[in-house]
Amino acid sequence: MGYDIDRFVGYVNEGLLCSICRDVLEDPLQAPCEHAFCTACIHGWLVHHSNCPEDRQIIDVSLLRPLYRYMKNDLNRLQLHCKNREYGCEMVCSLESIDRHERECEYSQIPCSNAGCTVQVERRHLDGHLAVCEYRSRECPNGCGYTILSAEDTQHNCVAELRTELELLRSEMICRVEEAKHEMESRLDSQRRHMVQKESILQNEIEELKSQLSRMMSDVRSLLAAERQHRQELEQAELEKREL
Fold first, then answer.
1. Is the pLDDT of residue 139 over 90?
2. Taking 70 as the threshold, does the pLDDT of residue 123 lie above it?
3. Class for the domain spanning 5-104
């Protein structure tokens, strides 16, 4: 939707009106047929149609272009009243600067910044409202450090609040201790499994060494037996040689 034409001071050229909403162009786009539209208006139109609402020529979103520079300049120079005119703002400025003014306008309706408060007040009255807002918060005057809302003044009990805070801290501490305990147990279990695995590997290596040692001893005995047999054969051959 465009800017309400009733807000403008003086004559507004017909070419600066949206062909769909008939208000003054807002964030304008132009079709190849040179008809201009508000961006929101033409996008909404093209959801259900595929042609220009003025001359029915075929158009597509990809064919839309920014407004001609001279038309954009004419549009930006138009003078209009602030949207907060009904609340008392008498500012009249160019369309080019109206958004900046309205963002800072003292007559703008803005929400209260206190959580839970649904009141909207003029920007110029915000400080006064915050000073009396029933949802404003402040620190307990008795020194317990608790932040209370004005609406809770009569119900606030320092001892009860401190007891509640203490219980929360105790619960948080218990949770942290339990988390640390579970983490330590997990680490110990992991290290235990690692040690058991290493022990199993070492045991297998020891068994393999024992097996190798047993084979070596068996080979040594075989060699000793063969050496004795060989010596006996030599002695027998020596005897036979002497007899001959």
1. no
2. yes
3. alpha beta
User: What whole-number distance in Å separates Cα of residue 207 and Cα of residue 211?
Assistant: 6
- pTM given for the model: 0.52
pLDDT recorded at residue 153: 55
Amino acid present at 93: C
Domain range list for the chain: 5-104, 109-148
Query: Which 3-state string (H, E, C) describes the chain?
Result: CCECHHHECCCCCHHHECCCCCCECCCEEECCCCCEEEHHHHHHHHHHCCECCCCCCECCHHHCEECCHHHHHHHHHCEEECCCHHHCCCCEEEHHHHHHHHHHCCCCEEECCCCCCCCEEEHHHHHHHHHHCCCCEEECCCCCCCEEEHHHHHHCCHHHHHHHHHHHHHHHHHHHHHHHHHHHHHHHHHHHHHHHHHHHHHHHHHHHHHHHHHHHHHHHHHHHHHHHHHHHHHHHHHHHHHHC
What band does 71 get if pLDDT is binned at 50, 70 and 90?
A: very high
140 token code pair: 């307990």
- Dihedral over alpha carbons 159, 161, 166, 167 (to 10 degrees): 110
Give 239's pLDDT tier (boundaries 50, 70, 90): confident
Question: In which band, very low, low, confident or very high, does the pLDDT at 114 lie, cut at 50, 70 and 90?
Answer: confident
- pLDDT of 141 > 70? The answer is no
